[in-house]
Structures are given as C-alpha cells and as structure tokens.
User: Fold this.
Amino acid sequence: MAKGEALKSHIEALRSAIPELKGVLLASNEGLPIAHSLSNGADPNRIAAMAAAASSLGRRISESMNSGSLGEVSIQAEEGALFVYSAGSKAVLAVISPQGGNAGLIHLEARGTAKDIGDLF
Assistant:
C-alpha cells in the first residue's frame, strides 16, 4: 500500500471509530494538508495552517517549561473542540469534535492513530 493510501486509511479508521467527529486532518508541521476527512465544507488549507500553528506554539511552551516533547494541544470552544496531536517529527493530526464529544474516547483513539502515522514517516 502506498504511503498516501495508508495515511488516508488511518484517517478513515479514526472517523469510523468516532462517527460524531466533524473532521480529521493530517498536516505537515509547515501547515500544509496531507490527508483529510472533513465535513461541513471545512477548508483543509485553513485547518492545516491553524493546527500547525497550535502545535508550534505548544512545542515552544513545552520547551520553555523543560517539559519534554509535545504530545498534544486541546482547544475548547462553545460549539466544539480541536485536538492537535504530534504525529512524529514531521506532521500533526487534527481532530475536530462537536460540543459534548467524548474527549476520553477521542484521546484514546487519536493518540494511537497519531503514533501509527508518525511511524509511517
């Protein structure tokens, strides 16, 4: 299986495991979309840029606190949440949840997916 197909497969598996998600996106650390499964007409370029920026800020904070490497960043809003996970050293996995989404299940599934994706790179 080609790398692009494997990445898409991981993203679709995450969407299938948690059907209420609004979207899942894999982006480069530079903010470019690699693969995605988004609903509601969300712009993958915009989400990729924001996820990479959140991850970059999280990395800088982790480094300044001498806390080790960044694992994830969570952003809660009135109508949903964005979870950004490091996917190896080259990419980030963004998971968009509706308000009231099961954060425990999201973390459980997405952390494994992010690790699997990181292993592909």
Q: What stands out?
A: The chain has a mean pLDDT of 91. The first helix runs from residue 3 to 17. The chain has one domain: 3-120. The two ends are 14 Å apart (CA to CA).
